[in-house]
Write a structure and sequence with these properties.
The protein has strands at 10-12, 22-25, 30-36, 42-50, 53-60, 68-71, 77-82, 88-93, 100-105, 113-114, 121-125, 131-135, 140-147, 154-163. It is mostly beta strands. β7 and β8 (88-93) form a beta hairpin.
Length: 175
C-alpha cells in the first residue's frame, strides 16, 4: 500500500523491480493488505473509514476487481490470513469485547470458530494448516492445533510457545 494520493491504496509491482507498478485498488478508505490467497487469485485486506469501521475485504485480481466484503460488521475485523489450502481465513475481531482470533470459511458462506480464549492477535497459519499461531494478550506466542480438512472447522489444544517481542503497527514479527 502507499499513501501517494492522500489515502492508502493498493499497488502491485514485480518483486524483482522490473516493469511498472500497477494500481490494484484506489478509493477513499485506508487499506492494509495482509494475505495473498495460495492460488494467487485474491488479496485479503483491511479497510477502515467505511460505514461499519474496520472490516476485511477480498480483492479479486482478475475480472472487474470489485472488492468483496469478507467480514463487514459493526466490530473491528483485521489481520486476516488465508489458510495454506485457501479454504479458510483466520482473523482477529473485537466482537467479544476484546480482540480474539477466529476462523471463517472462504469464500463462505458458513459459520465462524473462535480459536483464542482470553485474547488473541496477529493470527498466522502453519505451512501445513495444522496449527494457527497468534499472540496472546501477555505477548506469548500461542499455537492452536486445528483441523480444516472437512466441512466444519475444529480447534484442538492451545499451548503457549514462548514470549515474543511486541509487534509494530500492521506488521508481523514472526513467520
Amino acid at each position: 500500500n502507499s499513501r501517494r494520493k492522500g489515502h492508502l491504496d493498493l499497488y502491485q509491482k514485480a518483486s524483482g523491480g522490473a516493469g511498472t507498478e500497477e494500481i490494484l485498488l484506489e478509493d477513499n478508505f485506508e487499506k492494509y493488505p495482509f494475505s495473498w490467497s495460495p492460488d494467487g487469485r485474491f488479496i485479503l485486506y483491511r479497510s477502515s473509514g467505511g460505514p461499519t469501521g474496520i472490516d476485511l475485504f477480498v480483492l479479486p485480481l482478475a475480472g472487474d476487481r470489485k472488492p468483496i466484503p469478507f467480514m463487514n460488521t459493526p466490530f473491528a475485523e483485521t489481520v486476516g490470513h488465508f489458510s495454506p489450502d485457501g479454504r479458510w481465513i483466520a482473523y482477529q475481531s473485537d466482537e467479544s469485547g476484546k480482540s480474539e482470533v477466529y476462523v471463517a470459511p472462504f469464500p463462505g458462506p458458513g459459520g465462524k470458530w473462535q480459536v483464542s480464549t482470553g485474547g488473541g492477535n496477529w493470527p498466522r497459519w502453519r505451512r501445513d494448516g495444522a496449527e494457527i499461531f497468534y499472540l496472546a494478550i501477555d505477548n506469548k506466542l500461542m499455537a492452536a492445533a486445528v483441523n480444516g480438512k472437512g466441512a466444519n472447522f475444529e480447534v484442538g489444544a492451545v499451548k503457549p510457545l514462548f514470549e515474543a517481542p511486541r509487534p509494530g503497527a500492521f506488521r508481523y514479527h514472526y513467520a
